[in-house]
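Reopening: C-alpha coordinates for the 4'-deoxy-4'-aminopyridoxal-5'-phosphate complex, inputs below.
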Amino acid sequence: MIPVRDDLRALEGYHSAQVDVRVRLNTNESPEPPPAAFRDAVAAEVSRIEWNRYPDRTATALRAAIADLHGVDPAQVFAANGSNEVLQTVLLAYAGPGRVVATFEPTYQMHAQIARVTGATVVEGERAPDFTLDPEEVARVVGTHRPHVVFLTSPNNPTGLVEPAGRVEQLLAIAPGLVVVDEAYAQFADWSALDLVDEDRPLVVTRTFSKTWSMAGARLGYLIGPTWLVAELDKVVLPYHLDTVTQIAGRLALRYTDDMNERVTKLVAERERIARALEDLPVDVVPSGANFVLFRVRPGPLDGREVWQGLVDRSVLIRDCSSWPRLENCLRVTIGTEQENSEFLEALTAVFAAAASDARTDGVTV
Ligand code: PMP
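Re-run output (same inputs, fresh job):
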Protein backbone atom coordinates (compact mmCIF):
# COMPACT_ATOMS: atom_id res chain seq x y z
CA MET A 1 0.00 0.00 0.00
CA ILE A 2 1.18 3.51 -0.63
CA PRO A 3 0.09 6.32 1.69
CA VAL A 4 -2.78 8.56 0.67
CA ARG A 5 -2.42 12.35 1.06
CA ASP A 6 -1.78 13.15 4.75
CA ASP A 7 -4.85 15.36 5.02
CA LEU A 8 -7.14 12.60 3.67
CA ARG A 9 -6.10 9.88 6.12
CA ALA A 10 -8.76 10.71 8.69
CA LEU A 11 -11.60 10.98 6.15
CA GLU A 12 -14.27 8.34 6.49
CA GLY A 13 -16.19 8.66 3.25
CA TYR A 14 -19.95 8.57 2.73
CA HIS A 15 -21.93 5.66 4.16
CA SER A 16 -25.55 4.70 3.87
CA ALA A 17 -26.51 1.20 4.99
CA GLN A 18 -28.00 -0.82 2.11
CA VAL A 19 -30.07 -3.69 3.47
CA ASP A 20 -32.35 -5.95 1.49
CA VAL A 21 -35.82 -4.91 2.68
CA ARG A 22 -39.38 -4.56 1.37
CA VAL A 23 -39.81 -0.85 2.18
CA ARG A 24 -36.83 1.38 1.39
CA LEU A 25 -37.14 4.88 2.83
CA ASN A 26 -33.53 5.82 3.50
CA THR A 27 -32.08 7.91 0.66
CA ASN A 28 -34.66 10.63 -0.08
CA GLU A 29 -35.35 9.47 -3.63
CA SER A 30 -38.72 9.81 -5.31
CA PRO A 31 -40.83 6.71 -4.58
CA GLU A 32 -42.32 6.85 -8.07
CA PRO A 33 -40.68 6.44 -11.47
CA PRO A 34 -40.90 9.29 -13.99
CA PRO A 35 -43.96 9.27 -16.31
CA ALA A 36 -44.08 6.50 -18.95
CA ALA A 37 -44.23 9.14 -21.72
CA PHE A 38 -40.91 10.52 -20.50
CA ARG A 39 -39.28 7.10 -20.65
CA ASP A 40 -40.60 6.55 -24.19
CA ALA A 41 -39.33 9.96 -25.30
CA VAL A 42 -35.87 9.27 -23.82
CA ALA A 43 -35.74 5.83 -25.46
CA ALA A 44 -36.61 7.35 -28.85
CA GLU A 45 -33.90 10.02 -28.62
CA VAL A 46 -31.31 7.66 -27.21
CA SER A 47 -31.85 5.33 -30.18
CA ARG A 48 -30.61 8.17 -32.42
CA ILE A 49 -27.46 9.06 -30.44
CA GLU A 50 -24.20 9.19 -32.34
CA TRP A 51 -22.41 6.92 -29.89
CA ASN A 52 -19.02 7.38 -31.56
CA ARG A 53 -19.10 11.15 -30.85
CA TYR A 54 -18.41 13.02 -27.62
CA PRO A 55 -21.41 14.72 -26.03
CA ASP A 56 -22.20 18.41 -26.52
CA ARG A 57 -19.49 19.79 -24.26
CA THR A 58 -21.46 22.81 -23.12
CA ALA A 59 -24.81 20.94 -22.83
CA THR A 60 -26.39 23.81 -24.73
CA ALA A 61 -29.91 22.41 -25.11
CA LEU A 62 -30.08 21.18 -21.52
CA ARG A 63 -28.84 24.49 -20.13
CA ALA A 64 -31.36 26.36 -22.26
CA ALA A 65 -34.20 24.15 -20.98
CA ILE A 66 -33.14 24.67 -17.33
CA ALA A 67 -32.76 28.41 -17.92
CA ASP A 68 -36.25 28.47 -19.39
CA LEU A 69 -37.67 26.68 -16.36
CA HIS A 70 -36.29 29.33 -14.01
CA GLY A 71 -36.50 32.38 -16.26
CA VAL A 72 -32.73 32.99 -16.26
CA ASP A 73 -29.99 33.28 -18.88
CA PRO A 74 -28.49 29.94 -20.05
CA ALA A 75 -25.07 31.43 -19.17
CA GLN A 76 -26.24 31.42 -15.52
CA VAL A 77 -26.68 27.62 -15.55
CA PHE A 78 -24.01 25.04 -14.78
CA ALA A 79 -24.99 21.34 -14.97
CA ALA A 80 -23.08 18.26 -13.82
CA ASN A 81 -23.43 14.65 -12.68
CA GLY A 82 -25.69 15.15 -9.70
CA SER A 83 -25.63 18.22 -7.50
CA ASN A 84 -22.74 16.51 -5.72
CA GLU A 85 -20.57 17.10 -8.78
CA VAL A 86 -21.87 20.65 -9.00
CA LEU A 87 -20.79 21.19 -5.38
CA GLN A 88 -17.44 19.56 -6.05
CA THR A 89 -16.81 21.82 -9.04
CA VAL A 90 -17.71 24.91 -7.00
CA LEU A 91 -15.33 23.82 -4.26
CA LEU A 92 -12.53 22.98 -6.69
CA ALA A 93 -12.85 26.50 -8.07
CA TYR A 94 -13.44 28.47 -4.86
CA ALA A 95 -12.08 26.34 -1.98
CA GLY A 96 -8.85 24.29 -2.07
CA PRO A 97 -5.67 24.54 0.05
CA GLY A 98 -5.30 27.68 2.15
CA ARG A 99 -9.00 28.50 1.87
CA VAL A 100 -11.80 28.22 4.42
CA VAL A 101 -15.25 26.68 3.98
CA ALA A 102 -18.00 27.17 6.58
CA THR A 103 -20.97 24.90 7.31
CA PHE A 104 -23.63 25.04 10.01
CA GLU A 105 -24.02 21.62 11.59
CA PRO A 106 -25.81 19.33 11.45
CA THR A 107 -26.20 19.57 7.71
CA TYR A 108 -25.50 17.64 4.52
CA GLN A 109 -22.24 15.79 5.18
CA MET A 110 -20.91 16.10 1.66
CA HIS A 111 -20.33 19.86 1.92
CA ALA A 112 -17.58 19.41 4.52
CA GLN A 113 -16.42 16.14 2.97
CA ILE A 114 -15.88 17.53 -0.53
CA ALA A 115 -14.33 20.71 0.88
CA ARG A 116 -11.78 18.63 2.77
CA VAL A 117 -11.01 16.56 -0.31
CA THR A 118 -10.14 19.79 -2.14
CA GLY A 119 -7.68 20.55 0.68
CA ALA A 120 -9.69 23.39 2.24
CA THR A 121 -10.07 23.98 5.98
CA VAL A 122 -13.62 23.41 7.19
CA VAL A 123 -15.09 25.43 10.05
CA GLU A 124 -18.29 24.13 11.57
CA GLY A 125 -20.82 26.58 12.95
CA GLU A 126 -23.38 25.22 15.40
CA ARG A 127 -27.15 25.19 15.19
CA ALA A 128 -29.39 25.57 18.25
CA PRO A 129 -30.69 22.38 19.94
CA ASP A 130 -33.90 22.69 17.86
CA PHE A 131 -31.65 22.83 14.73
CA THR A 132 -32.50 26.43 13.83
CA LEU A 133 -29.67 28.81 13.05
CA ASP A 134 -29.05 31.78 15.31
CA PRO A 135 -28.01 34.97 13.39
CA GLU A 136 -25.38 35.63 16.07
CA GLU A 137 -23.75 32.29 15.32
CA VAL A 138 -23.72 33.16 11.61
CA ALA A 139 -22.09 36.51 12.41
CA ARG A 140 -19.56 34.83 14.73
CA VAL A 141 -18.49 32.19 12.18
CA VAL A 142 -18.24 34.66 9.30
CA GLY A 143 -16.56 37.35 11.40
CA THR A 144 -14.02 35.01 13.00
CA HIS A 145 -13.11 32.80 10.05
CA ARG A 146 -13.78 34.98 6.97
CA PRO A 147 -14.74 31.90 4.90
CA HIS A 148 -14.18 31.80 1.15
CA VAL A 149 -17.32 29.65 0.79
CA VAL A 150 -20.32 29.38 3.15
CA PHE A 151 -23.01 26.72 2.82
CA LEU A 152 -26.65 26.82 3.76
CA THR A 153 -28.96 23.93 2.93
CA SER A 154 -32.63 24.77 2.56
CA PRO A 155 -34.53 22.64 3.33
CA ASN A 156 -31.70 21.29 5.42
CA ASN A 157 -30.70 17.64 5.31
CA PRO A 158 -31.05 15.71 7.61
CA THR A 159 -33.27 18.02 9.69
CA GLY A 160 -35.80 19.07 7.01
CA LEU A 161 -35.93 22.65 8.33
CA VAL A 162 -36.37 25.42 5.79
CA GLU A 163 -33.83 28.21 6.29
CA PRO A 164 -35.61 31.58 6.64
CA ALA A 165 -34.93 34.09 3.84
CA GLY A 166 -33.43 36.41 6.46
CA ARG A 167 -30.56 33.99 7.10
CA VAL A 168 -29.57 33.95 3.42
CA GLU A 169 -29.86 37.73 3.22
CA GLN A 170 -27.77 38.12 6.37
CA LEU A 171 -25.05 35.94 4.89
CA LEU A 172 -25.10 37.86 1.63
CA ALA A 173 -24.68 41.07 3.59
CA ILE A 174 -21.69 39.92 5.65
CA ALA A 175 -19.95 37.02 3.87
CA PRO A 176 -16.61 37.94 2.28
CA GLY A 177 -16.81 35.04 -0.18
CA LEU A 178 -19.24 32.80 -2.01
CA VAL A 179 -22.61 31.81 -0.52
CA VAL A 180 -23.94 28.43 -1.68
CA VAL A 181 -27.57 27.59 -0.96
CA ASP A 182 -28.11 23.87 -1.54
CA GLU A 183 -31.75 23.49 -2.56
CA ALA A 184 -31.85 19.77 -3.33
CA TYR A 185 -35.33 19.66 -1.72
CA ALA A 186 -36.61 23.13 -2.62
CA GLN A 187 -39.71 21.98 -4.49
CA PHE A 188 -41.13 20.60 -1.23
CA ALA A 189 -40.69 23.93 0.57
CA ASP A 190 -42.49 27.25 0.36
CA TRP A 191 -39.47 29.46 -0.28
CA SER A 192 -36.42 29.50 -2.58
CA ALA A 193 -33.30 31.66 -2.75
CA LEU A 194 -33.39 31.57 -6.56
CA ASP A 195 -34.90 35.06 -6.76
CA LEU A 196 -31.83 36.46 -5.01
CA VAL A 197 -29.41 35.29 -7.71
CA ASP A 198 -28.02 38.07 -9.89
CA GLU A 199 -24.75 39.25 -11.44
CA ASP A 200 -23.77 41.38 -8.46
CA ARG A 201 -24.21 38.86 -5.68
CA PRO A 202 -21.73 36.04 -4.96
CA LEU A 203 -24.62 33.58 -4.55
CA VAL A 204 -25.31 30.23 -6.20
CA VAL A 205 -28.33 28.00 -5.72
CA THR A 206 -27.91 24.28 -6.40
CA ARG A 207 -30.69 21.93 -7.47
CA THR A 208 -30.99 18.25 -8.40
CA PHE A 209 -33.01 15.96 -10.65
CA SER A 210 -32.62 13.15 -8.09
CA LYS A 211 -35.65 13.90 -5.93
CA THR A 212 -38.70 15.59 -7.45
CA TRP A 213 -37.74 14.68 -11.02
CA SER A 214 -37.50 10.95 -10.13
CA MET A 215 -34.13 10.74 -11.84
CA ALA A 216 -31.62 9.72 -9.16
CA GLY A 217 -30.47 6.97 -11.54
CA ALA A 218 -29.38 9.48 -14.18
CA ARG A 219 -27.15 11.64 -11.92
CA LEU A 220 -27.98 15.20 -12.90
CA GLY A 221 -27.81 18.41 -10.92
CA TYR A 222 -27.25 22.08 -11.67
CA LEU A 223 -26.75 25.49 -10.22
CA ILE A 224 -28.02 28.94 -11.02
CA GLY A 225 -25.50 31.68 -10.38
CA PRO A 226 -23.81 34.76 -11.83
CA THR A 227 -22.46 34.27 -15.38
CA TRP A 228 -18.89 35.14 -14.32
CA LEU A 229 -18.96 32.32 -11.79
CA VAL A 230 -20.43 29.79 -14.23
CA ALA A 231 -17.62 30.68 -16.66
CA GLU A 232 -15.04 29.77 -13.98
CA LEU A 233 -16.76 26.43 -13.32
CA ASP A 234 -16.73 25.64 -17.03
CA LYS A 235 -12.95 25.99 -16.93
CA VAL A 236 -12.54 23.69 -13.93
CA VAL A 237 -14.86 20.80 -14.83
CA LEU A 238 -13.57 17.91 -16.95
CA PRO A 239 -14.27 18.12 -20.67
CA TYR A 240 -17.39 16.17 -21.73
CA HIS A 241 -18.25 15.42 -18.10
CA LEU A 242 -21.98 15.24 -18.79
CA ASP A 243 -22.80 12.36 -21.13
CA THR A 244 -25.27 12.54 -23.99
CA VAL A 245 -27.87 10.26 -22.37
CA THR A 246 -28.00 12.35 -19.20
CA GLN A 247 -28.30 15.56 -21.21
CA ILE A 248 -31.23 14.10 -23.16
CA ALA A 249 -32.95 12.76 -20.04
CA GLY A 250 -32.64 16.08 -18.22
CA ARG A 251 -33.92 18.13 -21.13
CA LEU A 252 -36.91 15.85 -21.72
CA ALA A 253 -37.81 15.61 -18.01
CA LEU A 254 -38.51 19.33 -17.96
CA ARG A 255 -41.44 18.75 -20.35
CA TYR A 256 -43.24 16.94 -17.55
CA THR A 257 -43.39 19.71 -14.97
CA ASP A 258 -47.08 19.11 -14.28
CA ASP A 259 -46.46 15.45 -13.39
CA MET A 260 -43.58 16.56 -11.19
CA ASN A 261 -45.74 19.11 -9.38
CA GLU A 262 -48.43 16.48 -8.84
CA ARG A 263 -45.92 14.14 -7.24
CA VAL A 264 -44.64 16.94 -5.01
CA THR A 265 -48.18 17.76 -3.83
CA LYS A 266 -48.81 14.11 -3.01
CA LEU A 267 -45.52 13.76 -1.14
CA VAL A 268 -46.11 16.93 0.86
CA ALA A 269 -49.56 15.63 1.91
CA GLU A 270 -47.99 12.29 2.89
CA ARG A 271 -45.23 14.10 4.79
CA GLU A 272 -47.84 15.92 6.85
CA ARG A 273 -49.70 12.65 7.48
CA ILE A 274 -46.50 11.02 8.73
CA ALA A 275 -45.58 14.02 10.88
CA ARG A 276 -49.06 13.94 12.50
CA ALA A 277 -48.95 10.19 13.07
CA LEU A 278 -45.50 10.44 14.67
CA GLU A 279 -46.97 12.80 17.27
CA ASP A 280 -48.80 9.81 18.81
CA LEU A 281 -45.53 7.94 19.35
CA PRO A 282 -42.71 8.56 21.88
CA VAL A 283 -40.65 10.67 19.45
CA ASP A 284 -40.01 14.39 18.86
CA VAL A 285 -40.56 15.45 15.26
CA VAL A 286 -38.63 18.23 13.49
CA PRO A 287 -40.88 20.33 11.21
CA SER A 288 -39.96 19.44 7.62
CA GLY A 289 -40.14 21.31 4.33
CA ALA A 290 -38.54 18.40 2.46
CA ASN A 291 -39.44 14.87 1.30
CA PHE A 292 -38.31 13.34 4.58
CA VAL A 293 -38.91 13.75 8.29
CA LEU A 294 -36.34 13.66 11.09
CA PHE A 295 -37.48 12.47 14.50
CA ARG A 296 -35.76 11.83 17.81
CA VAL A 297 -36.64 8.81 19.92
CA ARG A 298 -37.44 9.96 23.46
CA PRO A 299 -35.65 8.33 26.40
CA GLY A 300 -37.36 4.99 27.08
CA PRO A 301 -36.83 1.28 26.68
CA LEU A 302 -35.33 1.68 23.18
CA ASP A 303 -32.68 4.03 21.86
CA GLY A 304 -32.63 5.32 18.28
CA ARG A 305 -30.41 2.54 16.98
CA GLU A 306 -32.67 -0.14 18.49
CA VAL A 307 -35.75 1.44 16.94
CA TRP A 308 -33.95 1.49 13.55
CA GLN A 309 -33.05 -2.20 13.98
CA GLY A 310 -36.64 -3.02 14.97
CA LEU A 311 -37.81 -1.45 11.70
CA VAL A 312 -35.21 -3.38 9.67
CA ASP A 313 -36.42 -6.58 11.38
CA ARG A 314 -39.87 -5.67 10.01
CA SER A 315 -38.36 -5.08 6.54
CA VAL A 316 -38.48 -1.27 6.66
CA LEU A 317 -35.23 0.65 6.08
CA ILE A 318 -34.90 4.29 7.14
CA ARG A 319 -31.76 6.35 7.80
CA ASP A 320 -30.04 5.82 11.11
CA CYS A 321 -28.56 9.20 12.07
CA SER A 322 -28.35 8.27 15.76
CA SER A 323 -24.58 7.98 15.85
CA TRP A 324 -23.94 11.21 13.95
CA PRO A 325 -22.66 14.19 15.92
CA ARG A 326 -25.51 16.28 17.41
CA LEU A 327 -28.14 13.77 16.27
CA GLU A 328 -28.26 11.35 19.17
CA ASN A 329 -31.29 9.02 18.87
CA CYS A 330 -32.36 10.67 15.59
CA LEU A 331 -33.80 8.75 12.64
CA ARG A 332 -34.79 10.10 9.23
CA VAL A 333 -37.57 8.66 7.13
CA THR A 334 -37.97 9.46 3.43
CA ILE A 335 -41.56 9.99 2.32
CA GLY A 336 -42.57 7.06 0.12
CA THR A 337 -45.80 5.97 -1.51
CA GLU A 338 -48.95 5.99 0.63
CA GLN A 339 -48.62 2.21 1.02
CA GLU A 340 -44.94 2.40 2.04
CA ASN A 341 -45.61 5.18 4.51
CA SER A 342 -48.42 3.21 6.11
CA GLU A 343 -46.17 0.17 6.39
CA PHE A 344 -43.50 2.34 8.02
CA LEU A 345 -45.97 3.77 10.54
CA GLU A 346 -47.38 0.34 11.35
CA ALA A 347 -43.89 -1.10 11.80
CA LEU A 348 -42.79 1.80 14.01
CA THR A 349 -45.92 1.50 16.16
CA ALA A 350 -45.25 -2.24 16.48
CA VAL A 351 -41.61 -1.64 17.50
CA PHE A 352 -42.66 0.68 20.33
CA ALA A 353 -45.56 -1.59 21.36
CA ALA A 354 -43.26 -4.63 21.54
CA ALA A 355 -40.74 -2.69 23.67
CA ALA A 356 -43.49 -1.50 26.03
CA SER A 357 -44.81 -5.02 26.41
CA ASP A 358 -41.29 -6.41 27.03
CA ALA A 359 -40.77 -3.72 29.67
CA ARG A 360 -44.02 -4.78 31.39
CA THR A 361 -43.07 -8.47 31.31
CA ASP A 362 -39.63 -7.67 32.73
CA GLY A 363 -41.28 -5.86 35.59
CA VAL A 364 -43.36 -8.91 36.60
CA THR A 365 -41.82 -11.16 39.23
CA VAL A 366 -42.39 -14.77 38.30
N1 PMP B 1 -27.58 18.15 -1.48
C1 PMP B 1 -28.33 17.61 -0.53
C2 PMP B 1 -28.77 18.48 0.60
C3 PMP B 1 -28.69 16.26 -0.59
O1 PMP B 1 -29.42 15.74 0.40
C4 PMP B 1 -28.27 15.47 -1.68
C5 PMP B 1 -28.65 14.02 -1.83
N2 PMP B 1 -28.62 13.25 -0.75
C6 PMP B 1 -27.46 16.08 -2.64
C7 PMP B 1 -27.15 17.42 -2.53
C8 PMP B 1 -26.88 15.32 -3.78
O2 PMP B 1 -27.81 15.00 -4.69
P1 PMP B 1 -27.43 14.50 -6.15
O3 PMP B 1 -25.94 14.38 -6.23
O4 PMP B 1 -28.14 13.21 -6.29
O5 PMP B 1 -27.96 15.57 -7.05
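The chain has a mean pLDDT of 96. The chain has eleven helices and twelve strands. Marking as resolved unless the reporter disagrees.
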